[in-house]
Amino acid sequence: MNKSQLVEALAKAENLTIKTAEDVVNTFFREMEKSLTNDSRIEVRGLGSFKIKKYDSYNGRNPKTGRIIKVDGKKLPFFKVGRDLKERVDNIE
Q1: Are 30 and 46 in a shared domain?
Q2: Which pLDDT tens digit goes with each residue over 5-18?
Q3: Residues 56 and 18 in one domain
Q4: What's the confidence (pLDDT) of residue 92?
Q5: Residue 81's closest CA among 73, 71, 89?
Q6: Side-chain half-sphere exposure of 75, counting CA atoms within 13 A
Q7: Residues 6+ away with beta carbon under 8 Å from 1
Q8: Separation between Cα atoms, residue 2 and residue 29, nearest integer Å
Q9: Contact 5, 18 (CB under 8 A)
Q10: Residue 79 contacts by C-beta under 8 Å, 6 or more apart in sequence?
Q11: How far is Cα 79 from Cα 31, in angstroms, rounded to an integer?
C-alpha cells in the first residue's frame, strides 16, 4: 500500500473527502517526522516503534577500487515491529 492508497482507504472507511483524508495522513506523517528529527521515539501499540539509531564512523572499503575510505557517522530511522503484528503476520496462511 502506498500513500495515495492509504488516503483512499481512509476516505472510504471514514466517509471523508479525499482532501480531508489527505490532510489527516499528511499531518500524521509530518508529526512522526518532527518527532524523529527531535530524537524522540514513536510507539504505536500493536504495530511497532520507530526510533533513530546512531552509527559511528568507520573505515570501509570502496568495492570498485578496494581502497580504504572513511565512512562518516550517521543517524537513520529504525522500525521495530511489535509483538502483536509479528504474531498476526506469522499466522497468515
Answers
A1: no
A2: 999 999 999 999 99
A3: no
A4: 83
A5: 89
A6: 8
A7: 9
A8: 13
A9: no
A10: 48, 49, 50
A11: 16
How far apart CA 65 and CA 2 sit, in angstroms, is 38
What span, in angstroms and rounded, lies between the C-alpha atoms of 41 and 63?
35
Does pTM top 0.85 for this prediction? Answer: no
Q: Based on the domain organization, do 50 and 83 belong to the same domain?
A: yes
Q: Which three cell numbers stand for residue 45?
A: 501499540
Q: By residue range, what is the domain housing residue 9?
A: 1-40
Cell of 76: 537513520
CATH of the domain at 70: 4.10.520.10
Question: Rounded distance, CA 87 to CA 36, Å?
Answer: 26
Per the CB < 8 A criterion, the answer to whether 42 and 28 are in contact is no
SS3 86: helix
